[in-house]
């Protein structure tokens, strides 16, 4: 329960920080909140490429781990 409370506190602080920085940059409150909860709207093309690269690396690693465990469990 303590870990859950700390996690909620940290995410709340980070969202508030993001909204505060957006407001300092000149966004209205509505746009700052929308940017905080929809990060894909404010991503550039290069950020999308890096994001999908990380997703691809995660998927490849997960598949290879699954295949290796399956081979180790059933050595035919």
C-alpha-based Rg, rounded: 20 Å
Low-confidence stretches: none
Strand content: under 5%
| Major sheet description | none
Helical content class: over 70%
Computed structural class:
mainly alpha
- How far apart are the first and last residues' alpha carbons, in Å? 45 Å
Number of helices: 3
What sort of overall outline do the alpha carbons produce when their principal axes are compared? elongated
- Topology, number of strands: 0
> Average pLDDT value?
91
Q: Which series of helices and strands comes N to C?
A: HHH
Structural features, described:
Helices cover about 80% and strands about 0% of the residues. With about 80 residues, it is an all-alpha fold. The N and C termini lie far apart (about 45 Å). The model has no long low-confidence stretch (mean pLDDT about 90).
Ordered list of secondary-structure elements with their pairings:
Layout (H helix, E strand, L loop, with lengths): L1 H23 L4 H9 L7 H29 L3
Summarize the structure.
By secondary structure, the chain is mainly alpha-helical. The protein contains three helices and no strands.
Characteristic terms for this protein:
single chain; 76 residues; mainly alpha; 3 helices; 0% strand; elongated
């Amino acid at each position: 329960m303590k870990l859950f409370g700390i996690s909620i506190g940290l995410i709340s602080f980070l969202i508030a920080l993001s909204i505060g920085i957006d407001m300092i940059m000149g966004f209205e409150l509505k746009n700052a909140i929308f940017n905080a909860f929809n990060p894909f709207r404010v991503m550039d093309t290069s950020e999308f490429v890096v994001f999908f690269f990380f997703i691809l690396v995660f998927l490849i690693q997960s598949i290879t781990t699954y295949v290796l465990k399956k081979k180790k469990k059933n050595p035919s």
